[in-house]
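User: New here, any thoughts?
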Amino acid sequence: MERSVIVENLLAKVAELWDIAQGWLLSPAAWSQFALLVVAYVAALFVAKKLRPLLNRLLTPAADAETYLARARRFVAMFLPLLLPLLAYAFIGIGETATRAMFGSGAVIAFGKRVFLFIAVRILVKEIINDPVMKVLGRYILVPIAGLYALGILDEVMAYLDATVVPLGNLSFSVLFAIRFVLVAGAIFWFGRWSNDQSSQFIKSQDEMRPAMRELAAKTIEIAIFGVAFLLVMNIMGISLTSLAVLTGVIGVGLGFGLQKIASNFISGVILLLEGQATVGDYVELDGGEAGTIIKMTARATILETYDGRWIVVPNEDFITTRVVNYSDSGSANRYEADFSVSYDTDINRVPAIIEAAVAKHPGVLDKPFPPDCELRGFGDSGVDFSVEFWVEGIDDGKNKFLSDVLFLIWNALKDEGIQIPYPHRVVELKTPLPTS
């Protein structure tokens, strides 16, 4: 029954639109308004063609400019594709005023204004909005709304959607309320994310702050922004915050049971950021064998990148409850050892000075806290065993080949001094003589 009523209303609306179209086709006032629409569009096309190059020059900063003014100019330049439909909309508005003064009617030209507004919305969604979520909302909600507005049936559709109630247990809401909620929430949270990105970039550019403090400040601002966005959405949509008390209680119970690990990791992440014992850029190794450079610290976990480019997601709790070795905390130096052997025919008293001088030539080897130190380690099966200790800034990773470079220096220094590097020799004793032919 309800479906037949909808069909009847739709057919009646179509018949009404057909009558309006016939009236426009037979009315001299309507034809004059069509002519004004064409004139307004041509004028907008001409003005936009002249203004577009000028605006491009004014709103396009240098490629390497990162000031606030440069960012603002780039942001405004994003909306240049809307220039033509908005100019046409403005010129048609001027023509509408003149038409109503002359003919007492401006229905055709008002329809033209709504069409150009629809074109502007479509360009906004298709060419300007880049965020995937906002693009989906624009494509499936904003563009249809603009289309209904252009046809002049938006009020009827909104009234129908407002009368359509969706029951949900003890709660019920209209379809129109749901659409408004999605649009408002999407717009506010998109603005919140944009604000968070801008504030994070500003905080991370403050080099005088410790990296851990920068991360903590960025996370605090992120939580504050999205918290305010949530409260703002609730307030705009008329949802009482007291009605969330039950939901808060459910979340509290969940934290006590299934979500305690998430809460523990979140608190551990805050402690890590406050203490600064491990921060972005540090190379760390955990008791569980996970090792890599910290590239990101989130509310739940810390992401490590290994030498081979793999990412390891480590819960923040592991940094608090287990032993963590930090090889690059606050730019501290690290000590490495390079083992080698020399022949038993060598005057081993000469070896330490030769090796220490050779290793000290490496540009990455430090004099402090200690210069290179060559030590005798033992007498092996094939030769005399030595080891040289040296200090470097950073770690021996994929881009820093400290140990490999030092071994090359040792090899060349020993070769230059005529010192042999031994290799295993084996003596084979035959119990029976070899057969003679």
Observations:
- Residues 28-59 form the longest helix (32 residues).
